[in-house]
Amino acid sequence: MELDLEPLNLPSDNERPSCVIAGPCSAETEEQVLTTAKQLAAKGCHMFRAGIWKPRTKPGGFEGNGEKALPWMKEVKEETGMLTATEVATPEHVELALKYGIDILWIGARTTANPFAMQALADSLKGVDVPVLIKNPVNPDLELWIGGMERINRAGVKRLGAIHRGFSSVDKKIYRNLPMWQIPIELHRRIPNLPIICDPSHIGGRRDLIAPLCQQAMDLGFDGLIVESHCDPDEAWSDAKQQVTPDVLDYILSLLVIRDEHT
Ligand code: PEP
Ligand code: MN
Q: Cβ-count burial of 235 within 10 angstroms (0-12 exposed, 13-18 middle, 19+ buried)?
């Protein structure tokens, strides 16, 4: 399997994992977005994530602010210099995210599981040069994950990365989504030049699992991390249990042991 790839070329910090994207699960209010972003920037973070459109499992919860929140991401960029990242699930999301200058797009686990949705996204990305990070599908199906990446790649997107966010299971004893590390390891064996980023927040579902999962990802040679961080995690409108403050995230990252040689 070959993908036609170019390096992601995302900002990095030499002493830390090569790429760290941090920010809240959801962009809730202008104040929450700006406060969190400024705290993260003060800790040396270069890339800010926040969900604008939220794929909730059940109806009735907070489903994101939509377009209203996009100017807040623009402000983050102007005030902190951080690059911004958000999830896109439809061609309309892609169009709006690009219109407001979002720098990095990611495709969520529920979307990757749907080839029709992936093809629609691929068609909307034709001729667009933006880094796209593709989460694994919710189910442990490596072929579906690779197939989704192929669709986006065939549309001409060469700056592609994969995000490992764990796999849905009835077994919720420890993890919210089982890591099944053998799947991203096999992905790396199949497509060695594809950067793979670990999302410990959605794997663990719990704050206390963020540090060990980050370390495991580094030990396995992952290329970066995407971690949910909120200025007031207990009050978060989505995924409250797994978010950490920028202070705590900085502490977790400072304790990571990173080997020089990644395989
Ligand atoms: C998220 O990143 O907030 C999210 C909804 O993730 P996933 O698609 O991995 O569930
Ligand atoms: Mn989340």
A: exposed
Residue 109 near ligand 1, beta carbon < 6 Å? yes
Distance 1 CA to ligand 2 centre (A): 31
Tell me which fold the domain 20-55+62-255 belongs to.
Answer: TIM Barrel (3.20.20)
Q: What is the dihedral of CA 199, 203, 206, 211, to 10 degrees?
A: -50
For residue 261, report the phi and psi dihedrals to the nearest 5 degrees: -95, 120
Gap from CA of 228 to ligand 2 centroid (Å): 7
Structure confidence at residue 14 (pLDDT): 64
The residues of the chain scoring below 70 in pLDDT are 1, 14-15, 260-263
Cβ of 135 closer than 6 Å to ligand 1, yes or no, is: yes
* Packed helices 246-255 and 210-219: angle between N→C axes, nearest 10 degrees: 40
What are the structural domain ranges in the chain? Answer: 20-55+62-255
Do the beta carbons of residue 112 and residue 118 sit within 8 Å?
yes
Half-sphere exposure for 26 (CA within 13 Å, toward CB): 20
Which percentage of the chain shows pLDDT scores above 70?
A: 97
* Residue type for position 73: M
- For the CA of 238, the nearest ligand: 2
Report pLDDT digits (tens) over 21-49. Answer: 999 999 999 999 999 999 999 999 999 99
Query: How far is ligand 2, taken at its centre, from the CA of residue 164, in Å?
Result: 13
201 and 218 Cβ atoms separated by less than 8 Å: no
Structure confidence by residue, pLDDT tens digits, 205-232: 999 999 999 999 999 999 999 999 999 9
Q: What sign results for the dihedral spanned by CA atoms 221, 222, 223, 229?
A: negative
